[in-house]
Design brief:
Layout: H1 7-13, H2 41-44, E1 65-78, E2 85-96, E3 100-102, E4 105-120, E5 131-135, E6 138-142, E7 148-160, E8 168-179, E9 184-195, E10 198-212, E11 215-220, E12 223-231, E13 234-243, E14 246-249, E15 258-274, E16 279-297, E17 302-308, E18 311-321
Antiparallel strand pairs: 1-2, 1-18, 2-4, 3-4, 4-5, 4-6, 5-7, 6-7, 7-8, 8-9, 9-10, 10-11, 11-12, 12-13, 13-15, 14-15, 15-16, 16-17, 16-18
Length: 322
């Protein structure tokens, strides 16, 4: 059991949407995009200068998200056939922690940490201990030609309750993007993952479209957004996402060692307010639907499968934009 559909996001995004943009004009083919190599710590923490996105007119300079910290609460919803209900609290952190020039491109190691804690009653096999997901994507990005960007990613991951060593998985991806015009960027990629007694190979498309000075739309795998820049300090968005995390849980009083997968679609209204030059605070209210729970033992035998009713969620956090 694996994060099958969310894999497309990692294949098409490849960290491209987390890069700084100068928002001018596309670089002529004869112009060099690599400046003099920095030294010392400046080389580790140099902001990428990739001219592929220079033509972006998104959000009047609100910047590209480079890191997020957020908390989400999903309100209680009933199981479909199992007696009882379930609610959840989630904490998430995503941030690159270096940008290293290598040849004509950049190596960008990142960290993505998620903590999920379920609260249930009834006969569910969901544990109430905190479940952790730690991903360490390492991305390489470069510009092979005018208007093109390409890259690859490797990503070791840990996902479980910290009491078991059988919680590791591995993923890799390659992808490319093309600046069709100063307003439209098109992406495509292939993603492979291995872990939790399953493997996956999938490809997917994506785009970023700045169709007006104040408006931007994008689709990157199971993530989509339509944003409106109200003014220099406020940004409003309608966002959607498909999620399907998997955790490995050690044997406990509820049942044997097992893999737990909870999937859902989430749609939300999101409001962001600038706090400083690069720091934004945000709050969202949304709806989670088509929620499914699948629990298997380590030999892929079904232990418990059920739907979870739709329900509301709220989210708040901070975003760094560059």
């Amino acid at each position: 059991m694996m994060n099958k559909r969310t894999a497309i996001l990692l294949a098409t995004g490849l960290g491209i949407s987390a890069l700084s943009a100068q928002k001018e004009t596309l670089t002529p083919p004869s112009e060099s995009v690599i400046s003099e190599r920095p030294t010392g710590l400046a080389r580790l923490y140099e902001a990428p200068t990739l001219r592929f996105l220079d033509a972006s007119k998104a959000a009047k300079g609100s910047g590209v998200p480079l890191g997020t910290l957020n908390y989400t609460h999903l309100f209680s919803s009933d199981f479909d056939t199992i007696d009882g209900d379930v609610s959840a609290d989630e904490f998430s952190l995503f941030a690159p922690f270096a940008s290293i020039r290598v040849g004509k491109g950049y190596v960008i190691p990142m960290i993505n940490y998620n903590l999920t804690k379920f609260s249930t009653d009834g006969q569910s096999l969901l544990p109430e201990d905190s479940l952790h997901q730690i991903r360490m994507p390492i991305t390489y990005l470069y510009e092979p030609a005018h208007r093109w960007i390409a890259g690859g990613m490797i990503m070791p991951s840990f996902s479980g309750d910290l009491s078991n060593s059988d919680n590791f998985s591995f993923a890799a991806a390659v992808g490319a993007g093309y600046a069709y015009s100063p307003e439209l960027f098109i992406f495509g990629g292939i993603y492979y993952s291995e872990g939790f007694d399953d493997s996956l190979l999938v490809g997917g498309p994506g785009f970023i479209w700045n169709f007006d000075e104040d408006w931007q739309a994008y689709l990157l795998g199971p993530r989509a957004s339509l944003s409106f820049h109200v003014n220099d300090d406020w940004l409003l968005s309608l966002v959607g996402q498909y999620r399907t995390p998997t955790w490995n849980v050690e044997r406990d009083k509820l049942g044997p060692e097992r893999n737990i997968n909870i999937s859902d679609f989430r749609v939300a209204l999101k409001s962001e307010h600038r706090l400083g030059e690069k720091t934004w605070a945000f709050a969202s209210v949304g709806y989670s639907f088509l929620r499914e729970m699948e629990i298997e033992d380590t030999k892929s035998n079904d232990l418990q499968t059920d739907d979870i009713d739709s329900g509301l969620f709220v989210q708040a956090g901070l975003t760094l934009r560059f």
